[in-house]
Amino acid sequence: MSPSHGGLGLKLVLDRIIMKRGSWSCAADGILVPGIHLISGRVGSGKTTLAELICGLLEPTSGELVLDGISSWMLCQQFPEYHVIGATLEKEAQSYGVVPELALDRAGLTGRGGEDPFCLSRGELRKLQFSCLSLCDRDLFVWDEPYSALDCREKQRVAQHLSTRSSGITILFTHEQRYFPKTDYLWEMCDGVLKYVGKVPEALPLWEHAPSHIRFLIGKGVIPANLTEEDLGEALCRMQG
Amino acid sequence: MIVVRNLVFRRLSIPELTIPPGYVSLIGPNGSGKTTFLRVLSGVLKHAEGAALIDDTPLRERRIGFVNEYPDRNILFSRVSDELASTLRFSHLPCEEITRKVDLTIERAGLSHLADRYIHTLSGGEKVLVALLSATIHSPEVLLLDEFDSHLDEHAVDAAEQVISSSGAVYVIRCTQNMDIASRSETLIALFNGRIRSIGAPSEVFSALSGTCYVPFAWRSRIETGP
Protein backbone atom coordinates (compact mmCIF):
# COMPACT_ATOMS: atom_id res chain seq x y z
CA MET A 1 0.00 0.00 0.00
CA SER A 2 1.02 3.61 -0.55
CA PRO A 3 -0.43 7.00 0.30
CA SER A 4 -3.15 8.03 -2.16
CA HIS A 5 -1.92 10.40 -4.81
CA GLY A 6 -3.64 13.77 -4.56
CA GLY A 7 -2.77 14.80 -8.09
CA LEU A 8 -0.21 17.36 -6.93
CA GLY A 9 2.13 16.75 -9.82
CA LEU A 10 5.17 15.20 -8.15
CA LYS A 11 5.45 11.48 -7.59
CA LEU A 12 8.27 9.14 -6.64
CA VAL A 13 7.52 5.61 -7.78
CA LEU A 14 9.44 2.67 -6.34
CA ASP A 15 8.42 -0.08 -8.70
CA ARG A 16 9.36 -3.44 -7.19
CA ILE A 17 12.88 -2.28 -6.34
CA ILE A 18 15.21 -4.97 -5.06
CA MET A 19 18.80 -4.47 -3.99
CA LYS A 20 21.04 -7.46 -3.28
CA ARG A 21 24.53 -7.65 -1.83
CA GLY A 22 25.59 -11.23 -1.24
CA SER A 23 23.10 -12.76 1.17
CA TRP A 24 21.77 -9.33 2.20
CA SER A 25 18.88 -7.70 0.37
CA CYS A 26 16.25 -5.01 0.69
CA ALA A 27 13.09 -4.35 -1.27
CA ALA A 28 10.79 -1.38 -1.83
CA ASP A 29 7.53 -1.01 -3.64
CA GLY A 30 5.36 2.07 -3.29
CA ILE A 31 4.52 5.59 -4.37
CA LEU A 32 5.61 8.67 -2.45
CA VAL A 33 3.60 11.84 -2.98
CA PRO A 34 4.30 15.43 -1.80
CA GLY A 35 4.52 15.72 1.96
CA ILE A 36 6.84 14.53 4.71
CA HIS A 37 7.54 10.80 4.80
CA LEU A 38 9.21 9.33 7.88
CA ILE A 39 10.97 6.01 7.30
CA SER A 40 12.25 4.16 10.36
CA GLY A 41 13.96 0.81 10.70
CA ARG A 42 16.66 -1.02 12.56
CA VAL A 43 20.39 -0.74 12.02
CA GLY A 44 21.35 -2.51 8.79
CA SER A 45 17.77 -2.74 7.51
CA GLY A 46 18.57 -0.87 4.31
CA LYS A 47 17.57 2.74 5.04
CA THR A 48 20.78 4.27 3.70
CA THR A 49 20.79 1.92 0.71
CA LEU A 50 17.25 2.99 -0.15
CA ALA A 51 18.18 6.67 0.26
CA GLU A 52 21.09 6.21 -2.14
CA LEU A 53 18.93 4.28 -4.60
CA ILE A 54 16.33 7.05 -4.62
CA CYS A 55 18.98 9.67 -5.33
CA GLY A 56 20.65 7.64 -8.07
CA LEU A 57 23.88 6.87 -6.22
CA LEU A 58 23.13 3.15 -6.52
CA GLU A 59 21.50 1.08 -9.23
CA PRO A 60 18.91 -1.45 -8.05
CA THR A 61 19.49 -5.11 -8.77
CA SER A 62 16.00 -5.18 -10.24
CA GLY A 63 12.94 -2.95 -10.43
CA GLU A 64 12.55 0.61 -11.53
CA LEU A 65 12.59 4.00 -9.90
CA VAL A 66 10.52 6.76 -11.54
CA LEU A 67 10.88 10.45 -10.64
CA ASP A 68 7.58 11.67 -12.03
CA GLY A 69 7.59 15.47 -12.37
CA ILE A 70 10.64 15.72 -10.10
CA SER A 71 13.29 17.88 -11.73
CA SER A 72 15.62 18.49 -8.80
CA TRP A 73 16.63 16.48 -5.79
CA MET A 74 19.16 16.43 -2.99
CA LEU A 75 20.49 13.83 -0.58
CA CYS A 76 21.67 14.70 2.91
CA GLN A 77 24.03 11.82 3.64
CA GLN A 78 24.23 10.11 6.99
CA PHE A 79 27.87 11.08 7.43
CA PRO A 80 28.45 14.81 6.98
CA GLU A 81 32.11 14.13 6.24
CA TYR A 82 31.10 12.40 2.99
CA HIS A 83 29.79 15.74 1.68
CA VAL A 84 33.00 17.67 2.16
CA ILE A 85 34.73 18.83 -1.03
CA GLY A 86 35.89 22.30 0.02
CA ALA A 87 39.27 22.92 1.67
CA THR A 88 37.77 25.66 3.83
CA LEU A 89 34.36 26.21 5.42
CA GLU A 90 33.73 29.02 2.95
CA LYS A 91 34.58 26.84 -0.08
CA GLU A 92 32.49 24.04 1.36
CA ALA A 93 29.44 26.32 1.70
CA GLN A 94 30.02 27.66 -1.83
CA SER A 95 29.94 24.09 -3.16
CA TYR A 96 26.23 23.96 -2.26
CA GLY A 97 25.59 27.08 -4.33
CA VAL A 98 24.60 29.13 -1.30
CA VAL A 99 25.93 32.41 0.08
CA PRO A 100 28.79 31.28 2.39
CA GLU A 101 28.38 34.08 4.93
CA LEU A 102 24.70 33.27 5.38
CA ALA A 103 25.33 29.52 5.73
CA LEU A 104 28.16 30.04 8.20
CA ASP A 105 26.08 32.50 10.18
CA ARG A 106 23.18 30.06 10.41
CA ALA A 107 25.57 27.34 11.57
CA GLY A 108 27.02 29.55 14.29
CA LEU A 109 30.38 29.60 12.49
CA THR A 110 30.58 33.29 11.65
CA GLY A 111 34.14 34.45 11.00
CA ARG A 112 35.52 30.92 10.66
CA GLY A 113 35.27 30.65 6.86
CA GLY A 114 38.99 30.04 6.43
CA GLU A 115 39.10 26.96 8.69
CA ASP A 116 39.47 23.36 7.52
CA PRO A 117 36.10 21.51 7.65
CA PHE A 118 37.81 18.51 9.20
CA CYS A 119 38.95 20.59 12.15
CA LEU A 120 35.33 20.99 13.19
CA SER A 121 33.69 18.64 15.63
CA ARG A 122 31.30 16.28 13.92
CA GLY A 123 28.34 18.16 15.37
CA GLU A 124 29.64 21.45 13.99
CA LEU A 125 30.23 19.87 10.58
CA ARG A 126 26.68 18.51 10.62
CA LYS A 127 25.39 22.00 11.52
CA LEU A 128 27.24 23.48 8.55
CA GLN A 129 25.90 20.80 6.22
CA PHE A 130 22.35 21.31 7.46
CA SER A 131 22.67 25.07 7.22
CA CYS A 132 23.76 24.81 3.56
CA LEU A 133 21.03 22.32 2.69
CA SER A 134 18.35 24.39 4.40
CA LEU A 135 19.18 27.23 2.01
CA CYS A 136 18.59 24.99 -1.01
CA ASP A 137 15.25 24.25 -2.63
CA ARG A 138 14.53 20.96 -4.35
CA ASP A 139 11.47 19.01 -5.51
CA LEU A 140 12.75 15.99 -3.62
CA PHE A 141 14.78 16.11 -0.43
CA VAL A 142 16.12 12.90 1.08
CA TRP A 143 17.49 13.21 4.61
CA ASP A 144 19.49 10.25 5.91
CA GLU A 145 19.83 10.52 9.69
CA PRO A 146 20.07 14.32 9.70
CA TYR A 147 19.97 14.46 13.51
CA SER A 148 23.05 12.36 14.18
CA ALA A 149 25.74 14.21 16.18
CA LEU A 150 23.50 17.24 16.79
CA ASP A 151 22.68 18.57 20.23
CA CYS A 152 19.06 18.92 21.30
CA ARG A 153 18.74 22.59 20.30
CA GLU A 154 19.99 21.80 16.82
CA LYS A 155 17.71 18.79 16.58
CA GLN A 156 14.81 21.09 17.39
CA ARG A 157 15.92 23.42 14.60
CA VAL A 158 16.15 20.57 12.11
CA ALA A 159 12.67 19.33 13.01
CA GLN A 160 11.24 22.84 12.78
CA HIS A 161 12.87 23.48 9.43
CA LEU A 162 11.60 20.22 7.95
CA SER A 163 8.11 21.04 9.22
CA THR A 164 8.13 24.29 7.27
CA ARG A 165 8.72 22.61 3.92
CA SER A 166 5.33 23.12 2.37
CA SER A 167 5.89 21.72 -1.11
CA GLY A 168 7.74 18.85 -2.70
CA ILE A 169 8.53 15.41 -1.37
CA THR A 170 10.56 15.15 1.82
CA ILE A 171 11.84 11.74 2.93
CA LEU A 172 13.34 11.43 6.37
CA PHE A 173 15.25 8.25 7.20
CA THR A 174 15.94 8.17 10.92
CA HIS A 175 15.99 6.24 14.15
CA GLU A 176 15.76 9.49 16.10
CA GLN A 177 13.53 8.95 19.11
CA ARG A 178 12.75 12.45 20.27
CA TYR A 179 12.61 15.19 17.62
CA PHE A 180 10.42 14.91 14.55
CA PRO A 181 8.89 17.32 12.06
CA LYS A 182 5.15 17.47 11.46
CA THR A 183 4.92 14.21 9.56
CA ASP A 184 2.39 13.19 6.92
CA TYR A 185 3.21 9.54 6.22
CA LEU A 186 4.88 6.72 8.14
CA TRP A 187 6.91 3.92 6.57
CA GLU A 188 9.08 1.21 8.10
CA MET A 189 11.84 -1.10 6.91
CA CYS A 190 10.78 -4.50 8.26
CA ASP A 191 12.92 -7.57 7.53
CA GLY A 192 14.49 -5.76 4.59
CA VAL A 193 11.17 -4.72 3.04
CA LEU A 194 9.77 -1.19 2.92
CA LYS A 195 6.27 -1.18 4.42
CA TYR A 196 3.76 1.67 4.29
CA VAL A 197 2.30 2.06 7.78
CA GLY A 198 -0.15 4.85 7.02
CA LYS A 199 -1.01 8.48 7.50
CA VAL A 200 -0.24 10.31 10.74
CA PRO A 201 -1.85 10.26 13.29
CA GLU A 202 -4.02 7.26 12.41
CA ALA A 203 -0.96 5.08 11.77
CA LEU A 204 0.80 5.80 15.07
CA PRO A 205 -0.64 2.78 16.95
CA LEU A 206 0.61 0.55 14.11
CA TRP A 207 4.16 1.94 14.16
CA GLU A 208 6.46 -0.93 15.10
CA HIS A 209 9.53 1.28 15.63
CA ALA A 210 7.68 3.95 17.59
CA PRO A 211 9.82 5.61 20.31
CA SER A 212 9.12 4.38 23.83
CA HIS A 213 7.41 7.59 25.01
CA ILE A 214 5.02 7.48 22.06
CA ARG A 215 4.27 3.82 22.80
CA PHE A 216 3.70 4.87 26.41
CA LEU A 217 1.18 7.56 25.40
CA ILE A 218 -0.62 5.20 23.04
CA GLY A 219 -0.68 2.56 25.77
CA LYS A 220 -2.51 5.09 27.93
CA GLY A 221 -5.06 5.59 25.18
CA VAL A 222 -3.69 8.97 24.09
CA ILE A 223 -2.79 9.37 20.42
CA PRO A 224 -0.74 12.50 19.69
CA ALA A 225 -2.04 14.68 16.85
CA ASN A 226 1.42 14.42 15.28
CA LEU A 227 5.07 13.89 16.24
CA THR A 228 6.31 17.42 16.96
CA GLU A 229 7.38 18.47 20.45
CA GLU A 230 4.20 20.53 20.76
CA ASP A 231 2.03 17.58 19.78
CA LEU A 232 3.72 15.30 22.28
CA GLY A 233 3.50 17.93 25.01
CA GLU A 234 -0.20 18.39 24.28
CA ALA A 235 -0.73 14.61 24.37
CA LEU A 236 1.07 14.43 27.70
CA CYS A 237 -1.21 17.15 29.14
CA ARG A 238 -4.23 15.27 27.82
CA MET A 239 -3.03 12.08 29.49
CA GLN A 240 -2.59 13.90 32.79
CA GLY A 241 -6.10 15.32 32.49
CA MET B 1 39.31 7.83 40.60
CA ILE B 2 40.31 9.77 37.50
CA VAL B 3 41.62 13.14 38.57
CA VAL B 4 41.91 16.07 36.17
CA ARG B 5 43.83 19.11 37.37
CA ASN B 6 44.41 22.50 35.79
CA LEU B 7 43.59 21.24 32.31
CA VAL B 8 43.76 24.04 29.76
CA PHE B 9 43.65 22.97 26.13
CA ARG B 10 42.01 24.78 23.21
CA ARG B 11 38.55 25.75 24.49
CA LEU B 12 38.77 23.44 27.50
CA SER B 13 39.40 24.94 30.91
CA ILE B 14 38.95 22.50 33.79
CA PRO B 15 40.65 23.56 37.03
CA GLU B 16 39.68 20.40 38.91
CA LEU B 17 37.53 17.37 38.20
CA THR B 18 37.24 13.98 39.86
CA ILE B 19 35.56 11.22 37.86
CA PRO B 20 34.49 8.16 39.84
CA PRO B 21 34.54 4.61 38.41
CA GLY B 22 31.40 3.42 36.64
CA TYR B 23 29.25 4.83 33.86
CA VAL B 24 29.81 8.50 33.15
CA SER B 25 28.07 10.54 30.46
CA LEU B 26 29.35 13.81 29.12
CA ILE B 27 26.65 16.10 27.73
CA GLY B 28 26.58 19.60 26.28
CA PRO B 29 26.07 21.59 23.09
CA ASN B 30 27.93 20.93 19.83
CA GLY B 31 31.35 22.54 20.00
CA SER B 32 31.48 22.67 23.80
CA GLY B 33 34.69 20.62 23.98
CA LYS B 34 33.35 17.11 24.71
CA THR B 35 35.33 15.42 21.95
CA THR B 36 38.48 17.36 22.83
CA PHE B 37 38.09 16.27 26.44
CA LEU B 38 37.78 12.58 25.50
CA ARG B 39 40.78 12.85 23.20
CA VAL B 40 42.85 14.45 25.91
CA LEU B 41 41.83 11.71 28.35
CA SER B 42 42.72 9.01 25.81
CA GLY B 43 46.10 10.52 25.01
CA VAL B 44 45.19 11.03 21.33
CA LEU B 45 45.75 14.72 22.07
CA LYS B 46 48.57 15.67 24.37
CA HIS B 47 47.87 18.69 26.49
CA ALA B 48 50.60 21.07 27.53
CA GLU B 49 49.03 22.24 30.75
CA GLY B 50 47.50 20.23 33.56
CA ALA B 51 47.13 16.52 34.20
CA ALA B 52 44.67 13.65 33.79
CA LEU B 53 45.61 10.79 36.08
CA ILE B 54 44.40 7.46 37.43
CA ASP B 55 46.14 6.64 40.69
CA ASP B 56 48.86 9.16 39.83
CA THR B 57 49.46 7.54 36.41
CA PRO B 58 48.67 9.43 33.18
CA LEU B 59 45.56 7.95 31.59
CA ARG B 60 47.29 7.46 28.26
CA GLU B 61 49.61 4.93 29.89
CA ARG B 62 46.69 2.68 30.85
CA ARG B 63 44.76 0.24 28.67
CA ILE B 64 42.19 2.37 26.88
CA GLY B 65 39.42 1.55 24.41
CA PHE B 66 38.31 4.44 22.21
CA VAL B 67 35.48 4.83 19.71
CA ASN B 68 35.78 7.87 17.46
CA GLU B 69 32.74 10.00 16.61
CA TYR B 70 33.57 9.58 12.89
CA PRO B 71 32.80 5.88 12.30
CA ASP B 72 35.23 5.49 9.41
CA ARG B 73 38.11 6.84 11.46
CA ASN B 74 37.90 3.79 13.73
CA ILE B 75 38.58 1.38 10.93
CA LEU B 76 42.03 0.12 9.89
CA PHE B 77 41.24 -3.07 7.97
CA SER B 78 38.81 -3.96 5.22
CA ARG B 79 37.18 -7.08 6.69
CA VAL B 80 35.21 -7.16 9.96
CA SER B 81 37.03 -10.16 11.46
CA ASP B 82 40.45 -8.60 10.70
CA GLU B 83 39.36 -5.33 12.28
CA LEU B 84 38.30 -7.12 15.47
CA ALA B 85 41.53 -9.11 15.54
CA SER B 86 43.73 -6.06 15.04
CA THR B 87 43.89 -4.96 18.69
CA LEU B 88 44.85 -8.47 19.74
CA ARG B 89 47.41 -8.86 16.93
CA PHE B 90 49.05 -5.57 17.88
CA SER B 91 49.32 -7.00 21.40
CA HIS B 92 51.11 -10.09 20.01
CA LEU B 93 48.62 -12.61 21.39
CA PRO B 94 48.90 -16.18 20.07
CA CYS B 95 46.95 -16.73 16.83
CA GLU B 96 44.73 -19.43 18.31
CA GLU B 97 43.73 -17.17 21.17
CA ILE B 98 43.01 -14.33 18.77
CA THR B 99 40.75 -16.53 16.64
CA ARG B 100 38.94 -17.81 19.72
CA LYS B 101 38.42 -14.32 21.13
CA VAL B 102 37.23 -12.85 17.84
CA ASP B 103 34.73 -15.68 17.30
CA LEU B 104 33.45 -15.45 20.86
CA THR B 105 33.17 -11.66 20.81
CA ILE B 106 31.25 -11.46 17.56
CA GLU B 107 28.99 -14.36 18.52
CA ARG B 108 28.14 -12.85 21.92
CA ALA B 109 27.23 -9.58 20.19
CA GLY B 110 24.91 -11.45 17.80
CA LEU B 111 26.90 -10.17 14.82
CA SER B 112 28.36 -13.42 13.46
CA HIS B 113 26.66 -12.68 10.14
CA LEU B 114 29.00 -9.69 9.72
CA ALA B 115 32.29 -11.54 10.36
CA ASP B 116 33.27 -11.98 6.71
CA ARG B 117 31.71 -8.77 5.43
CA TYR B 118 33.80 -5.94 4.02
CA ILE B 119 33.52 -2.90 6.25
CA HIS B 120 32.62 -0.59 3.36
CA THR B 121 29.43 -2.61 2.80
CA LEU B 122 28.22 -2.11 6.39
CA SER B 123 25.61 0.40 7.45
CA GLY B 124 26.67 3.31 9.67
CA GLY B 125 25.25 1.61 12.76
CA GLU B 126 26.99 -1.67 11.98
CA LYS B 127 30.32 0.14 11.56
CA VAL B 128 29.89 1.64 15.00
CA LEU B 129 29.10 -1.73 16.55
CA VAL B 130 32.26 -3.18 14.96
CA ALA B 131 34.26 -0.25 16.32
CA LEU B 132 32.79 -0.85 19.78
CA LEU B 133 33.70 -4.54 19.67
CA SER B 134 37.25 -3.65 18.56
CA ALA B 135 37.56 -1.18 21.42
CA THR B 136 36.38 -3.68 24.03
CA ILE B 137 37.86 -6.96 22.80
CA HIS B 138 41.09 -6.46 24.75
CA SER B 139 39.37 -5.69 28.08
CA PRO B 140 40.22 -2.01 28.46
CA GLU B 141 40.42 -0.45 31.89
CA VAL B 142 39.01 2.81 30.53
CA LEU B 143 36.46 2.89 27.71
CA LEU B 144 35.95 6.23 25.97
CA LEU B 145 33.00 6.49 23.57
CA ASP B 146 32.45 9.58 21.47
CA GLU B 147 28.77 9.78 20.45
CA PHE B 148 28.80 6.24 19.12
CA ASP B 149 25.09 5.97 19.89
CA SER B 150 24.07 8.64 17.36
CA HIS B 151 24.09 5.94 14.67
CA LEU B 152 22.15 3.33 16.60
CA ASP B 153 18.47 2.49 16.98
CA GLU B 154 16.92 1.53 20.30
CA HIS B 155 17.61 -2.20 19.85
CA ALA B 156 21.19 -1.64 18.75
CA VAL B 157 21.75 0.60 21.78
CA ASP B 158 20.60 -2.25 24.02
CA ALA B 159 22.99 -4.63 22.25
CA ALA B 160 25.80 -2.09 22.64
CA GLU B 161 25.05 -1.74 26.36
CA GLN B 162 25.54 -5.50 26.74
CA VAL B 163 28.92 -5.25 25.01
CA ILE B 164 29.94 -2.35 27.25
CA SER B 165 28.82 -4.00 30.47
CA SER B 166 30.66 -7.23 29.65
CA SER B 167 33.85 -5.39 28.64
CA GLY B 168 35.07 -5.24 32.22
CA ALA B 169 36.00 -1.56 31.86
CA VAL B 170 36.27 0.14 35.24
CA TYR B 171 35.57 3.55 33.73
CA VAL B 172 33.09 4.03 30.88
CA ILE B 173 33.03 7.67 29.81
CA ARG B 174 30.93 8.67 26.85
CA CYS B 175 29.68 11.73 25.07
CA THR B 176 26.08 11.48 24.08
CA GLN B 177 23.27 13.61 22.72
CA ASN B 178 20.75 11.00 23.79
CA MET B 179 19.55 12.22 27.16
CA ASP B 180 17.65 9.00 27.87
CA ILE B 181 20.96 7.14 27.68
CA ALA B 182 22.66 9.84 29.74
CA SER B 183 19.98 9.53 32.41
CA ARG B 184 20.97 5.88 32.96
CA SER B 185 24.57 6.83 33.87
CA GLU B 186 25.83 6.86 37.41
CA THR B 187 27.54 10.21 36.91
CA LEU B 188 26.68 13.01 34.54
CA ILE B 189 28.97 15.84 33.52
CA ALA B 190 27.54 18.87 31.71
CA LEU B 191 30.19 20.68 29.66
CA PHE B 192 29.30 24.07 28.22
CA ASN B 193 31.80 26.34 26.44
CA GLY B 194 34.72 24.23 27.57
CA ARG B 195 33.84 24.46 31.25
CA ILE B 196 32.13 22.08 33.64
CA ARG B 197 28.72 23.50 34.36
CA SER B 198 27.50 20.65 36.52
CA ILE B 199 28.60 17.21 37.71
CA GLY B 200 26.79 14.66 39.85
CA ALA B 201 24.00 12.12 39.74
CA PRO B 202 21.65 12.54 36.75
CA SER B 203 18.91 13.92 39.02
CA GLU B 204 21.25 16.68 40.23
CA VAL B 205 22.55 17.60 36.81
CA PHE B 206 19.14 17.56 35.09
CA SER B 207 17.82 19.64 37.94
CA ALA B 208 20.60 22.16 37.28
CA LEU B 209 19.65 22.13 33.57
CA SER B 210 15.93 22.44 34.29
CA GLY B 211 14.03 24.28 31.58
CA THR B 212 16.47 23.28 28.82
CA CYS B 213 16.08 20.60 26.18
CA TYR B 214 18.83 18.60 27.90
CA VAL B 215 16.28 17.26 30.38
CA PRO B 216 14.96 14.00 28.86
CA PHE B 217 11.31 13.75 27.93
CA ALA B 218 10.73 10.90 30.41
CA TRP B 219 12.16 13.02 33.24
CA ARG B 220 10.08 16.02 32.22
CA SER B 221 7.03 13.75 32.24
CA ARG B 222 7.94 12.47 35.68
CA ILE B 223 8.41 15.99 36.93
CA GLU B 224 5.13 17.08 35.43
CA THR B 225 3.19 14.03 36.64
CA GLY B 226 4.72 14.18 40.11
CA PRO B 227 6.19 11.31 42.15
Helix share, percent of chain A:
25-40%
Q: Judging from the principal axes of the Cα atoms, what is the shape of chain B?
A: globular
> What's the CATH topology label of chain A?
Rossmann fold
Instruction: Point out poorly predicted stretches of chain A.
Output: none
Largest sheet of chain A: 6 strands, mixed
Describe the global form of chain A.
globular
Count of beta strands of chain B: 10
| Oligomeric grouping of the chains | heterodimer
What's the name of the CATH homologous superfamily of chain A?
A: P-loop containing nucleotide triphosphate hydrolases
Mean pLDDT of chain B: 90
Low-confidence stretches of chain B: 223-227
What is the CATH superfamily classification of chain B?
P-loop containing nucleotide triphosphate hydrolases
What is the tally of helical segments of chain A? 7
Total domain units of chain A? 1
SS class of chain B: alpha/beta
Which range does the strand content of chain A fall in? 25-35%
Rounded to the nearest angstrom, the radius of gyration of chain B is 18 Å
Q: Could you give the distance between the termini of chain B? A: 33 Å
Total strands of chain A = 9
Largest sheet of chain B: 6 strands, mixed
